[in-house]
Amino acid sequence: HKRDTHQSLTDTVSTVVLVAAMVDWNGVLAYTTVKCVKIRNWKLGAIHYFFQFSIFCYVVVYAVIFERGFMFKEQIVGGSLTLNSQAPPRTSGLTNVSYCCNTTIGDCVNNSKVILPCAFWDEYQAEYPQSQGEMIAITTRVTVSQQSTPDNEDCTYQNWGPNCVWEDVGDPVAQFIDGAEDFTIRIRHGVRGQQVNKQGVNTGPNALSGKLVKPDKPTEAIMSWPDNSSPYPGQGEDDRKGDIIPLSVFLDAVNLDLDSRGEDGTAESSPRYDGITLIVSVYYEMQGIDGSTLTYTYIPRMLDNLEYKVEESQQITGPNDREILNRHAVRLIFVQSGVLGTFDFTALLITLVTALGLLAVANTLTNLIMTKFLDQKDLYNWHTTEVTEDVDKVLQLPPEELDAKMKVIRGHLAQGKGTFFAIDSSHLQDDSASVTSTEKSPLIGNGRSSNYESGSTA
Questions:
Q1: List of residues 6+ apart from 296 with CB closer than 8 A
Q2: What are phi and psi of 422, to 5 degrees?
Q3: What is the mean pLDDT of residues 210-230?
Q4: How far apart are the first and last CA of the chain?
Q5: pLDDT per residue as tens digits for the range 116-161
Q6: Residue 238's CB: how many other CB atoms inside 10 A?
Q7: Contact predicate 118/175, CB 8 Å
Q8: What does the alpha-carbon distance between residue 50 and residue 41 come to, in Å, rounded to a whole number?
Q9: Which of 1, 287, 305, 322 has most Cβ atoms within 10 angstroms of its Cβ?
């Protein structure tokens, strides 16, 4: 039994070896590649190398270095943001400003702007709503209305009946807030990547550097941090507590005067009277080739024709009396955005593969110029193009002739033959060796000669 098994295994191996010896491995494992034509013309070469050099500069200088194509990047979609306001210091009474009159409302008449009695409010009165994260609003005008419920009704919240209706008591009183644009805003913010292990804050000893710019002049800093003077007396630079920015600086950055007339040309539509909304972008960006340093930029922009108004209800002497404060304010909405990144080999590989694809564009553009626009385009087409017979005419041949032609073609394909050029060995010592076509595809037409002299071809 062992002898039979051994004999069977020997026969199997012999059969495999015999079959392997009969296979044309050069045909089975043949390598297929493209055939290149070398055009001996320095002008075309210069054009081609110019395109390649331009693509190289784009890939290496712009895509890899400037755009950091070697990094995995994560978009910043939010972070931590804390906003606080502080009223300007007062050493005496109200300031003498053109929009205030501190007599009766009937005497506050001005043909060019609305002037109202003014009140000085501190930050706890002027900032409303309080502690809203990414938003802060500083009141510029307020209209106060007194309301109460009927005295003969027990209008508590527990016994609120159908006859409990709030009624106005007296006339509403409108006031401007004196020096609203002189309020300062403290901004404390920070970001951290979810997939990229990077973070940064604008407080503490390792606070980020930042600046505030105008939207139309992003390279000119109006304010920058850290600055030479500490925003808090008695605190050094290592104890930075955020960025202190006057509201007037934000307004100047968007070229806004609170007392300017609105789109309808009336004084009642001024930003101080109606309120206004600013969108402040806090944009984080990496510095340096490796992106190890993170900085930020405040970029304020104004929303045109969008007033800001909010109403507040306050209980005064009891549950049956209240004040309604109709506030108009300058509202700042802060939006954090930017990019964090870290080195990633996959990202670098994708950038380089894209570059290789772009290199093919250089060949395509050069071929287009060579074969379509140059005066010698017919010569270049002759050297770079092989024209087949008219296939439709071939298919219309008599069946016997068509079968014979197709049999020849199949034979060439089976043997891995196309158009094969051989060099006559007798001319190997001569620089002008002739190149002779010894095999030719049956479908190659007569548009090209089958004999080429190397000295006469490009």
A1: 189, 200, 202, 208, 209, 210, 282, 283, 284, 285, 338
A2: -120, 150
A3: 84
A4: 72
A5: 888 889 999 999 988 778 899 999 999 999 988 887 667 777 777 7
A6: 11
A7: yes
A8: 14
A9: 322
